[in-house]
Specification:
6-stranded mixed sheet, 18 strands
Length: 355
């Protein structure tokens, strides 16, 4: 459990008020948009209303966390702050609204509310290294996504719209057990595939189109992320070259991943490979990012990153080439950083698929 680590960080007289769903899930293994988690130096309290109380009480099993039925939230928080002699309360600056913070300060004028990035940074630093259990959940989410993609390949045809293909893929992920989608599925064909984050449209996929699919499943709150580009009909020689260039950049960057290597260096490896093919200028985004309870977590893998990879981080490797007005290709895998390299979590082959 992770509550004990936060308690150790707080010290005497300190408490943390956790309101974000992702942090509540990370600390208690139970995620909910509702409810408030108050962590003191002695004990944590999950305060939640009657609609969810019984379910929460069953799900939260950490002996350091007590589930309390919410009645008058501010009164209950005040009683707990007094009980544990709290003088300073850390809040999540990235999640708490200005109005919510102002209300707390008005209600508890004798308490200092620390709205700096200290708590958010501490939580990020905890979450950036994944446990074996977290890795297992992410692998499960990835296998769901891969099974859905495999099934999609035999259910796609020219004439379907990007929206239809995205919807079918999302249905298959749900059918294989996904709790939801990691993010709105990207299905971009032809000229639309030249936009890295294109939104699925009513455009019909045509013979000769690249189709880029970027998608992910969710299992026990943990996300997966992968991208594959397929071609409808027969590709041109230029299309084959671009695909092979991106595939090479993906492969070379993965080979460079290991603990104690800078994220910036890994990004540079991919760019160097694309440069050798003559396409580096068309790689217009960072190489990758962390994945976990959120689809975008630390570390950022790009040419400006100052982060060094550490064992247990999970990152994406997703180089792309986007030719304006023509088409684009992206290939994305997830991997776990190890001492001497990485463990690739994505099992779907990268050979260009012809539809």
């Amino acid at each position: 459990m992770n509550i004990d680590r936060l308690i150790s960080w707080l010290g005497d007289g300190g408490a943390a008020l956790i309101t974000s769903e992702v942090s509540k899930r990370y600390l208690t293994d139970f995620g909910s948009e509702d409810g408030t988690l108050l962590v003191t130096k002695d004990l944590a309290y999950f305060i939640i209303d009657a609609r969810y109380f019984e379910h929460t009480e069953k799900q939260v099993t950490d002996p350091l966390c007590k589930v309390i039925l919410q009645e008058e939230l501010y009164d209950q928080i005040g009683e707990l702050l007094n009980k544990h002699g709290v003088q300073n309360v850390f809040v999540e600056d990235e999640y708490m609204t200005v109005s919510a913070l102002s209300a707390l300060k008005r209600r508890f004028s004798g308490i200092n509310f620390d709205s700096s990035n200290r708590l958010s940074d501490f939580m990020k630093n905890m979450r950036i290294i994944k446990t074996d259990e977290e890795i297992s959940c992410i692998i499960k989410a990835q296998r769901i996504a891969e099974a859905a993609f495999t099934k999609l390949l035999s259910n796609m045809r020219a004439g379907q719209t990007e929206k239809q293909i995205a919807a079918i893929l999302e249905f298959f992920m749900a059918d294989f057990g996904s709790e939801g989608v990691s993010f709105p599925t990207i299905a971009a064909s032809g000229v639309n595939s030249a936009c890295p984050h294109a939104v699925p449209s009513d455009k019909k996929v045509q013979e000769g189109d690249f189709l880029t699919l970027d998608f992910g499943a969710v299992y026990k709150g943990y996300h997966s992320d992968m991208t594959r580009t397929v071609v409808f009909g027969k590709p041109t020689e230029e299309m084959k070259n671009i695909y092979n260039a991106v595939w090479g950049a993906n492969t070379d960057a993965i080979k460079a991943v290991r603990a104690d290597i800078s994220c910036k260096l890994v990004d540079n490896v991919a760019r160097s490979t694309l440069d050798a093919w003559g396409y580096e200028q068309y790689f217009t985004h960072g190489l990758g990012h962390g994945v976990g309870l959120e689809i975008h977590e630390g570390p950022s893998v790009n040419k400006r990153s100052g982060t060094t990879l550490r064992e247990g981080m999970i990152i994406t490797i997703e180089p792309g080439v986007y030719i304006p007005g023509k088409y684009g290709v992206r290939i994305e895998d997830m991997c776990v950083v190890t001492k001497d390299g990485c463990r690739i979590l994505t099992e779907t082959p990268k050979t260009l698929v012809y539809i």
